[in-house]
Amino acid sequence: MLIHRFTDLFKWRDLVFNIVAKEIKIRYMGAVLGFAWSLGNPLVVTLTYYMVFTYILPSNQDRFALHLVTGVIHWMLFSQIILQSSDWLIGNSGLIRKLRFPRVLIPLSGALTVCSFWLVAIAVYATLYKFLGGYAGTALLWYPLVLIPYVLMIMGLALAISVLQITWRDIKHVTEVFVPLLFWLTPIVWITSALPQDIAHVVSFNPLAPFFNSFTAILHESVPPSSRDLAFCWGIGLVSITAGLLVFKRADKLVELL
Question: What is the tally of structural domains in the chain?
Answer without folding.
Answer: 1
